[in-house]
Amino acid sequence: MNIIETSGLGKRYGRTWALRECSLAVPAGHVAALVGPNGAGKTTLLNLAVGLAAPTAGAVTVLGGRPPGSPAALDGVAFVAQDTPLYKNLPAADMLHLTRNLNRRFDQRYAETRLGELGIPLNRKAGRLSGGQQAQLALTLALARRPRLLVLDEPVAMLDPVARHDFMATVLMAAADDGVSVLLSSHVLAELERVADYLILLSRGRVQVAGEVDDLLASHRVLTGPAAEAGRYAEWPVVHVRRAEAQAHLLVRAAADDPVPPGWEAHPVGLEELALAYLREPGAAALPGPARGQALPLETGEPSQVTR
Amino acid sequence: MYSDQHLRLSDAEREAVTDRLAEHFAAGRLDQAEFDDRVGRAMSAKTRADLSGLFADLPETGAPAVPEFSRGGGRTPAGGPRGPGSPIEFRLDAASGVPTYLQLVHQVEHALRLGYLKPGDQLPKVRDVVASLAINPNTVLKAYKELETKGLTAGRPGQGTFIQATLSQIALPELTVLRRSLSGWLTAADGAGLDEDGMVALFTSALRDFYERRRGSGNRRGAASGETEGVAS
To answer: What CATH number is associated with residue B100?
Structure first.
């Protein structure tokens, strides 16, 4: 079952396409990270997935074929927006009461236990909790609805490192305990390697990379060798080149057992390095099925990143 | 804790204390120097009073500070019943560049080699690893699957993952004794004016000589190690 599936999905605001030709299929049981520069269309895609926006073109479904906003989708999808929406004047207990009465399903015991574990006082007004506690309260309210898909928009951007760690621990425990699928957008690349096992990279409103992290890492390598020969070894699609006077690093799509050109060294690539390389090369793409983007033509084109 | 602080300690009791220190070391609560220091104090302790303070800044691990029973032989499991849960705890080094699941695999293998984990011991539950490290549950599952493929662990449905093989040839107390005699050698080398690099070089060279000599004399090997692989010629 695909927890979220889009085909040719597009959203236009006025004359600007915030998202275009977005085709994705994320299987259930993953923690999928949505990565991309500001204005890439991350929030637009998330809003479309939870039914807060209607597509201009194409289609999106969640939970194995249900349209966002339909009763079944509303029941099974929980969403925490960027600004951790809470009624700041309501005590935590009243936020629980409100959420319980606004939803068909609400696990009051889970919510109270979790807030107890986190040391969040039920009688304190939401607005007087720390930033980390507010984020945890909003997350707990979402998880107490026992969703099958949890959608988080930049959940940790405003949090300090400890709060960030604890917040992600709550999310991942829900994934471990109940098999909740997670779709989250984030700027914090360094943390994604531990958290995400599925990567969606958006750039200028289009999907640039999509796939399981293990598959992506296994199908990419960094080749290091003499800069003068960088152009000659273009037998693999080259995603990104960093070149100095003598030495060049190429991020290429190649399997671990592919032969390495003589005089070159091959290294495995990390998720952060991979994502950065693609973010710097909006023209390159790594998608399931026939690749849509073209590799950089090394013989003719100038490398876009030249280090001197 | 004890009214019999003046009572003298047995070797078994010193070993039990060492085992507990080793658990804290494996869990990352003690660094190498602290561990060595405390093991040294435990090994030279004469009475129960000499043990006071060794665990003052450490949480309970489930085993009593000094076991009330005497241990059978040197190879029996660590003294005292373990609390529920695992004798080890994972840590992550984000800067190492090693994939997360491999770090977990390596830490289990390391703990097995040093005797911190023994057959029958439970690995931390997936949920607990996820909660403490904030990592993807599939990463933990992948690591545990890899350990199972290597034949080191076995999953018991509904209970967790348990160690079923071992990589360490000898038990922790014997390792501790070996470590102590090595410490003695290090002190002598230091006294002779050898620096750290010099000690490493000398040890490495002696180690290589040792195995080369053993390979040369073919039949004599196997007395100390149970390995069955063929002799390279």
So the answer is: 1.10.10.10
**Residue A226 DSSP one-character state:** E
Question: Based on the structure, what is the number of domains in chain B?
Answer: 3
Residues in chain B whose Cβ is within 8 Å of chain A: 92, 94, 97, 99-100, 126-127, 130-139
pLDDT tens track for B58-75: 876 544 433 333 333 333
Strand A77-80 versus strand A149-153 pairing type: parallel
Q: Please report the ipTM that was assigned to this predicted complex.
A: 0.80
Structural domains counted in chain A: 2
> Domain range spanning residue A233?
220-280
In this complex, is the C-beta atom of A228 within 8 Å of any C-beta atom belonging to chain B? Answer: no
CA–CA dist B128, B135 (Å, integer): 10
pTM for the predicted model, two decimal places: 0.69
Domain annotation covers residue B223? no
Query: Which chain B residue is nearest to residue A32, measuring alpha carbons?
Result: B136
| CB pair distance less than 8 Å for A31 and B136 | yes
Strands (E), B94-206: 153-156, 160-163
Instruction: Give how far B147 is from chain A: nearest CA, Å.
Output: 18
A239: tokens are: 């995603």
Q: For the domain that residue A161 is a member of, what is the CATH number? A: 3.40.50.300
How many Cβ atoms from other residues are within 10 Å of residue B191's Cβ?
A: 8
Nearest CB to B134 within list A168, A190, A197: A168
**How many angstroms separate the CA of residue B185 from the nearest CA in chain A?**
40
* pLDDT tens for each residue of A114-164: 999 999 999 999 999 999 999 999 999 999 999 999 999 998 888 888 899
Tell me the shortest Cα–Cα distance from A227 to chain B, in angstroms: 25
